[in-house]
Design brief:
28% strand, 10-stranded mixed beta sheet, alpha+beta, 4-stranded antiparallel beta sheet, globular
């Protein structure tokens, strides 16, 4: 399908005109499994590509039970098919702060991935699978059959980025939130971004390599719930905290999110969902709906726990 610069401009204008708050909109996943799949992707890439659809369904069912998100990925550029037994890259990431990792391997038989212990992966164990990946990855959604704006704006972004970050940038199937195109996720942290531009993407990758997070255009860390994502980003803004693993969501109850800092401090953040006006499409060409957003109302420091009184 041929797209013009005017089409891309229309997508960008729609995204900005119907802008909604991005914090709290990232996909929720403890771990990510990324499989290289060349050739075209359909609306549901796992079952509508040249990957065996039965394998796609089996992988999806296994992953859904354990909060593992599966992405199809491909190198930027032309997507001609190659023989099915050609080696393909696989990445496996766990996103929890302090215990996160990114591993990589190659396979000629994607069915081998069914042998992975998804329960162990989501608990933070890679059990020696593959090799450590030495650089962070940025997965940019270009799943045009899912949303044409992702293909237009995503590929436009990738064209500029691959000149500087070859090997760190991959095209990806739907990452969630295509209304925020170009949409991307950085691994292994799981921080997700929307309406990304090349300058911010450069900063995201360099910061990720240093164990830090960029807050500009950030939608949240996939490790947390929607409320947890919004609360964590608001607290980061309040503190000026950019170390990716400095904060951890430790509990949620009603509208309250509890967050601990690695230095021992703790906060209680009140988050509520609210409907947004006016109604807007959640994807290019879709009917307008009234979305909800996570609004942070208060951030309160929690008192440090008192040591027990030895005389009591």
């Amino acid at each position: 399908m041929h797209h013009t610069a005017a089409d891309a401009a229309t997508c960008a204008a729609l995204s900005e005109a119907l802008a909604e708050p991005m914090p709290g909109t990232a996909a929720v996943a403890d771990s990510w499994l990324c499989l290289e799949q060349r050739g075209p992707w359909g609306h549901n890439a796992l079952t509508q590509s040249h990957l065996d659809p039965e394998l796609g369904r089996a992988l999806s069912a296994r992953a859904d039970q354990h909060r593992v998100r599966i992405q199809l990925i491909r190198h930027p550029g032309r997507h001609a098919d190659t023989a099915g037994d050609q080696p393909r890259r696989v990445f496996l990431a766990h996103t929890a702060p302090g215990t996160g990792w990114l591993r990589t391997a190659t396979t000629t038989d994607p069915a081998e991935l069914l042998e992975l212990d998804f329960a162990r992966i989501t608990a933070g164990h890679h059990d020696g699978w593959g090799q450590p990946a030495t650089e962070p990855l940025l997965l940019v959604c270009t799943n045009g059959r899912r949303d044409r704006c992702c293909a237009l704006l995503g590929r436009e972004l990738i064209t500029e980025l691959t000149r500087r970050h070859d090997g760190m940038i991959w095209e990806s199937s739907h990452t969630g939130g295509h209304r925020f195109a170009p949409a991307a996720v950085v691994l292994p942290s799981g921080y997700t971004y929307g309406r990304l531009n090349a300058q911010t993407a450069d900063a995201v990758l360099s910061s990720a390599a240093a164990g830090k997070v960029v807050l500009d255009h950030c939608r949240g860390r996939s490790t947390w719930s929607r409320a947890g994502q919004a609360a964590e980003l608001a607290l980061r803004e309040r503190l000026g905290e950019y170390l990716a693993d400095a904060l951890r969501v430790t509990g949620e109850e009603a509208h309250q999110v509890l967050i601990d800092h690695q230095d021992g401090r703790s906060w209680q953040v009140v988050v509520r969902e609210r409907e947004l006006d006016p109604p807007r499409p959640n994807s290019c060409g879709k009917k307008a709906i009234r979305p909800t957003a996570c609004a942070v109302e208060t951030i309160n420091r929690r008192p440090a726990p008192q040591p027990p009184n030895p005389t009591e």
